[in-house]
Write a structure and sequence with these properties.
Blueprint lengths: L2 H25 L5 H20 L6 H26 L6 H21 L3 H30 L2 H27 L11 H37 L10 H14 L7 E8 L2 H8 L1 H18 L5 E6 L2 E7 L6 H13 L3 E3 L2 E3 L3 E7 L7 H17 L5 E3 L3
Parallel strand pairs: 6-7
Antiparallel strand pairs: 1-3, 1-6, 2-3, 4-5
């Protein structure tokens, strides 16, 4: 089968890819990546269409513009992968690659008419963006999961490897080939590989979008929507994991349940919108007050919970007291109004090789009731 027929065989794959990317971009309206993948696939497809019309349309379209668009589509896809990862491709990288594409194809068409060197330029202009894409895929995989990343990574490995071998083979063994559409087994194999690559790229990018949507839903299910803290479900899962690796003999740990004092009075006096803002304020203070090795979450209402670890000379009781004091020393301010906020805390030490979280919560709640009964704004340590 000749190269022109093989290129035309890619057209249905490209059209299907454009349709799939368009649907995906409409669904993922809050992400830039899918729109760039759509633009890159369409640009690449138009370029291949122009290449297949060589001899029918002027060379400026069939050779120069066709090659530029076919290779440039991968630069657009690279930018899409970077933006989907929350990053941007350095401008010097994009500029350098765009320079190779925009200068290389005209140079080896009108200055030195060499189809083999044009194919080599195409190889370089496609291989480098695909290799650069790997680092952005790693970022996406760490954030959203691996399925789509794996498919794209293996596709890139195959594409880069085969295209590199074919480009070198064309330059070394067929340097005088008249055109990329002339009979050439290496070029034909490269175009066949491109059909596989096009298909995998489309589904790989769609899998990235699906993985991101699933990750967002997982995060939403484990996050308190008001404060942005983990919710009780997420906290319990995290604590169970920590209990599994905790070396209780080497450090002191405790579960602390915090309750905002007189929170109903805040709502009744200032309104629920201010009450919500107060909860957000307390969440921010708690996040700053505890260390990176500790964990804090919102249980619901005006209750928060933390797993704290004693580090250095400070005991868990002293750490909980420091957290309470930090909240007291950081009043809530809004529209010139200053609202003094205090919290009460029930604290229970984590002991034993397999601590029971239900029992710990019950003991911490009992200690919290004692703190409330004793006048609030204090930390009570549950009896051993």
């Amino acid at each position: 089968m000749d190269s022109k027929t093989l290129i035309l065989a890619i057209v249905p794959v490209i059209l299907a890819g454009v349709f799939i990317h368009a649907v995906n971009a409409a669904i993922q309206q809050n992400k830039d990546g899918p729109r760039w993948w759509l633009a890159g696939t369409a640009t690449h497809g138009i370029g291949l269409g122009l290449i297949s019309l060589r001899g029918v349309v002027p060379d400026v379209f069939g050779i120069v513009l066709g090659d530029i668009m076919a290779a440039g589509g991968f630069l657009i896809m690279l930018e899409g992968a970077a933006r989907f990862a929350g990053l941007n491709v350095p401008r010097w990288q994009l500029g350098g690659l765009a320079g190779v594409v925009v200068i290389g194809f005209p140079a080896f068409t009108w200055v030195v008419d060499s189809a083999a060197l044009r194919f080599a330029v195409f190889g370089v202009a496609v291989i480098i963006p695909n290799l650069l894409m790997l680092s952005y895929l790693s970022v996406i995989g760490q954030r959203d999961g691996k399925p789509g990343v794996r498919l794209l990574r293996y596709t890139i490995y195959y594409f880069v490897g085969s295209l590199a071998v074919i480009s070198v083979g064309v330059v070394l063994f067929d340097p005088d080939m008249p055109s990329v559409l002339a009979p050439n087994q290496l070029v034909a194999f490269g175009i066949l590989s491109l059909i596989v690559v096009e298909t995998n790229l489309v589904f790989g990018f769609v899998l990235l979008s699906a993985g991101h949507s699933a990750a967002v839903l997982r995060k939403a299910a484990l996050t308190d929507h008001l404060t942005g803290l983990p919710n009780r479900r997420a906290f319990e899962a995290m604590v169970h994991r920590e209990f599994g690796v905790m070396e209780s003999a080497d450090r002191q740990s405790a579960l602390a349940v915090f309750d905002v004092d007189h929170f109903k009075q805040v709502n009744d006096t200032y309104g629920h919108d201010v009450g919500d803002a107060v909860l957000q304020h307390i969440a921010d203070v708690l996040k700053r007050a505890i260390r990176d090795t500790d964990h804090v979450a919102r249980l619901g209402g005006e209750e928060f919970v933390a797993l704290i670890h004693a580090g250095g000379p400070a005991s868990v009781g002293e750490i909980a007291e420091r957290v309470r004091q930090t909240v007291e020393d950081t009043p809530f301010e809004r529209d010139g109004k200053v609202i003094a906020i205090t919290i009460s805390a029930g604290l229970v030490e984590v002991t034993g090789d397999e601590p029971c979280l239900t029992r710990l919560f019950k003991q911490a709640d009992m200690a919290l009731y004692e703190a409330k009964d004793a006048g609030r704004n204090r930390v009570i340590l549950a009896a051993a």
